[in-house]
Amino acid sequence: MKYEKAQNILPQNIIEIIQNYIDGGYIYIPRKNENKKSWGENTETKSYLKNRDKEIFNKYSSGVSVKALAEQYFLTEGSIRRIVRNIKNLSP
Fold it and tell me: What Pfam families does the record tag this protein with (predicted)?
């Protein structure tokens, strides 16, 4: 997100209306609903975490302890348990 000067993109009458609500401050204009993107859509993060979680589940299923997985992936034991539980719930 980048800042734009209002006077460069908005008509003066709109600026004056906005100034009645906030004078000289910053205001965030949200995206239109049809232009919104879900979390991780612009990066590979979502895909990376999905693959990491599958890897954790597979190692857990092979007998690796929750404690060892937490240390290996730098996560809490509670996070490892949550990942395992979520993947178990997705399986039929």
Answer: Mor
pLDDT for 39-68, tens place per residue? 777 778 888 999 999 999 999 999 999 999
> Is 1 within a domain?
no
Rounded to whole angstroms, the Cα distance separating 73 from 54 reads 13
The residue range of the domain holding 19 is 6-90
Nearest to 9 by CA among 25, 24, 29, 23: 29
1 pLDDT band, cuts 50/70/90, is low
Distance CA 4, CA 60 (A): 49
Choose among 92, 86, 54: nearest CA to 73. Answer: 54
14: which 2 tokens? 């709109």
